[in-house]
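2.7 Reproducibility. Because tokenized structures are sensitive to small changes in the input, we list the exact sequence used for PD-(D/E)XK endonuclease-like domain-containing protein, including any N-terminal residues retained from the expression construct. No trimming or masking was applied before prediction.
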Amino acid sequence: MKDLYSGFKSDDFLRIFGLKKSYDFFIEIVEQDYRYMSKNEIFRILENQNGKFYRNPKDVEAAGIINFIDEIEKIFEYQTLGEYENYLEKIFERSGEVDKNVRDKYFEALSEMVVLEDFSFDNLWKGFFNENGISASLLKLFLKYLDKKAISLNLEETDEQDSENISRYSINSFSAISETQKENLIFLNIQDTFPKININNYLFTKIQRAKMGLPVSDDEKQIEIFKFYQNILGAKNVYLSYVKNLDENIDSAGAVEEIKLKYAIEAQKNKIDENDELNFIKKYFLENVEKSWESRQIGKFIPSKLKKDLDRIKAEKVSLGYYSFEEMQNFEYGYYLKKMIGNTEVEKIEDKVDNLMFGNIIHGLYEKIVMENKEVLEKGKFVINNEEIRKTLKSILNSFEYKIPKEYLEFYKKVSFEEIVKSVEKILQKVMKTLENEEEIEIYSEERIKLKSEKEIYENIFINGMIDLHIKLKNKEILYDYKSGILKNKKGEEKKEKVVNAFKQLDYYSVMLPEKNGQEIERFVVDVWNGDIIGDTREKEEEFLSEKNIREVVKKYYETDCYDIGDVKDVQNYTYQTFKDVCRREDELNDENK
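Resulting structure tokens (single pass, no recycling of outputs):
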């Protein structure tokens, strides 16, 4: 699905394979977190959507995808290189019939690659920054090259025949670095998969190449790492630079980490900004330019105060879930931005399972167990059966077959399976203990509550939520919230802030329940990993969330003139971190308000 999604972004791909009519259907599948696809699964989706099993794919908009899968399955049956060649010729002919420009795009991309790879940077752009000699497009191309390639910058002083000492600078892609000893050496973009090796496995697989004695990527990588160490140990001064992106799980290369650990080296600078990059470019290109670089200051920043359009805000009907309320409370401008941006198109299909996906698995498991045994639970006659729990968990995991990368699915089945079964058993035992000797029991799992509360909350505000498990007894009600995140540290101690926030979420849900003359409401947070049920031990007033607190937050949002832009010191505020470069808090607030 990951590769197919990349293809669906191309109009040419859609035209060549007749997939244009299937685009909306495919995007719908992507938004449901599918990572794999088969014809049988498509038929199952269609059956659920339409209540009818389509045996004639021509009748549905998914026909293009089904035909495409048929075509792929035929390719898997090819046994000879000639069969591949014939198929590729057909694709080439098909693309020519559809759009003559398709082939040109391949050559255009190839040409750009060749030009970049063949660049010799020494003195190439001498005088490039002269007043009348600036080419913005070429500069962008060069910067793009620097940004994407692992490169080395060799700064040397060499003795020429005329005995004049001149500085010599050279920029090379890492693959082209020489083995000669350097005076000063800078490595840029040494991160993630460095050194990146591209071995063409089109004709032969990696295993086939190894059996025939041809080099594979592992062999080439060892050679490149050797060159890396050889250059570092041979140079007098070495500078290593890499990009760290926690959101995309990108960090320094393993080779860099090994050097840091072996020689006890610590990072000298944790952030490289645009000015650093600009200074690097200036130093390289302006070394021999007569006209010196003149820095220009950007004008003074004018605070906008982020004024609200209160008339527009008050005219909208808002349905406020707990997480949206939390954003409104902690970072109004972030809440506004997320609301204005709305649902965004999926940019890529990840090969990993995020916390939300795992949470969906756990919630699905508990919901299915509770609802399938609702009657016996309410009668207090439920008997915990490990085999039934295993059977239910297996069916839940199988239902995610097309949404979880196969290696993760195998991990859950082989490693986490029994741990989850044990935790479910432990939790159910505690719940049954709570229900002992109770005469009146009503159980609701994943109960959706939506309450219009114009008077209780604010003019046009609805608050809504979903209680994981809601038990009504004769004299009290019990609310459970399942948490799949880590609630305890390595010492087994509760992470207080996370636990308090979980209970505040239950406070929010309890506000939505109909009033019953002061009937007691108990709240419990369930740690689904180890089967612990955490009781409410809060004491301080600020650890609770009341209806009054909710009103105050909403009232502030709808009555103040400017957006609150959060606490810059709150590193846990994910929404603030996402939009900090947009709201520019340091510029918007004056010294008195910081």
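DSSP finds 23 helices and ten strands in the chain.
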